[in-house]
Amino acid sequence: MSEVETSVEKHVFEADVAKLLHLMVHSVYSDKNVFLRELISNAADACEKLRYEAIVAPELLGSDPTSRITLTLDEENARLTIEDNGIGMGRDELVESLGTIARSGTRAFMERIEAAQNKDGAQLIGQFGVGFYSAFMVADNVDVVSRRAGTDKAWHWSSDGKGSYTVSSFDLADAPARGTRITLHLMEDAKTFTSRWTVEGIVKEQSGHVPVPISIVEKPGAAPVQVVDGTALWTKQKSEITTEDYTDFYRGVAGQYDEPALTVHFRAEGRHEYTALAFVPGSKPFDLFDPDRKGRMKLYVKRVFITDEAELLPRYLRFVRGLVDTADLPLNVSREMIQESPLLANIRKGVTNRVLTSIEKLAESDPEAFAKLWENFGSVIKEGIYEDFERRAQLLALSRFRTTVDDEKTRSLSDYVKEMKEGQAAIYYLTGDNLAQLKASPQLEGFRARGIEVLLLTCPVDSFWVTTAPDFEGKPFKSITQGAADLAGIAKKNDAAAAASAEAGVAVTDFLAFAKETLGDAVSDVRTSDRLTESAVCLVATEQGPDLQLQKMLQGAGRIESAAKPVLEVNPGHQLITALAGCPGEDKTFREDAVKLLFDQARVLDGDKPEDPRAFAERLTRVFSRALKGS
Binding of ATP: at which residues (predicted)? Predict the structure, then answer.
């Protein structure tokens, strides 16, 4: 490659890029073909960007208005070249795009790819969209020559992927008229990528539906042969599209390397006309819990890419990938017009309704496939219960939950309501950090004893939507860790505990009064419980305010300074309580220690630590000493 100037700028990659390149160069993947898809995808994006900029500056197209991507195979010199006539890059853009990683998620990608130990390398590369850098899986040196449309300078970027790169100006006579040419100097074990049969197969399989024609030049100087016609898949009739076609397109538009769990393709006609092609991924995208919660749907106008920031779906459907193409917007639509456009509001409503309806149909027709979809995205969909009032009932009906009836499989709220006990007025739930902790919760005992189903909610979002969803089919939601359990009207399977409680009588009442006096401001009340059948004590929140789990979350996030004082509920039929109630009144120190230990026990059962570990240990020592003396 000839250069105009002898001066060459040498740069060192950013630390994250250097680490990423090391992973690329020194790892062995079962499928390296992904690099070609990534480079072709980048080339197609460059062509789309040029089409968009040419709307207001048609002179950028010059005498070459047709977009194209050309792959040149050079078996003799072990080189593969990918060239496009898209927007191209200037010197600063080369440094910014190829020398740094600005996008979020790169560190997470590197952590996961190291953990994967070569098992899912190709899938992760596609999933995290590291794009250009995947070239170093097959090349020991990469040269990039680029000329931005409308400029009279070309630039040369080069690197061996070992920590640094160079940038220099390039002879215009040897540079593309516009666009970018990437030359891969292939490693010994990657020379198969100069084979026409190999490369054409990969292109048709992985990039067969990019909206730019792709041609192959079998050897330098040969005539190009078109292998992809650049016809937009979404413009075809559904009857003409195979499942494989959809999958290939999904992998390109979504940056995923799995298969879609659900495909939604439709054309809306009438007052507003548009075509939508949306996919629910088969696995979780890495940015599923991005704090910005941005969607990944692309907006096209007359097949020209406009933006991927139009928010064509609500944030709780941000895992959906795909595009919307409409002819009803002007090609030079501005960001402000997009945000204020009633047409986009109409499209957003229509696409959202269609995606949710398709998910509902999947739940009815293929429960196993829906269960997998819900496992991946249920925690995100549930955000819509408190964000989307209009569709709240629909989202509640769609939601699935682990319950005390079956903690291995999920159940719908419709199933729950159908099997409610006689006298049961509410849908009961319990929130917490994990399923094992919830199943061991003492607050469940009274509900189990009566055969009452309880929702076991382990997603952080669960603590929020239950406070905003007033009811489902007329049945309100009620936390079993808040307020009175109201279980007295529902018969237990075995009511032996109630008989024991009745025998305790006045002594227990006096003990509860003593406990309340002893604990003072640490609790708001001490009372008997109808939710306990096995444990001696438990904590519950007062009737007003959030339940225990939500209080912990709000306090941890700094939204409240301190949690409200809990209620200590006591099982009056438990042998420990009846024994303590029968202790002589003069043994006040022992009774005080016992009461405070019971309170600490309730905290531990609720997943907390004793408030004062040292005092807890001292009380425990005194109680043990007394017990040993008595024995």
Answer: 38, 42, 84, 89, 104-105, 127-132, 180, 335
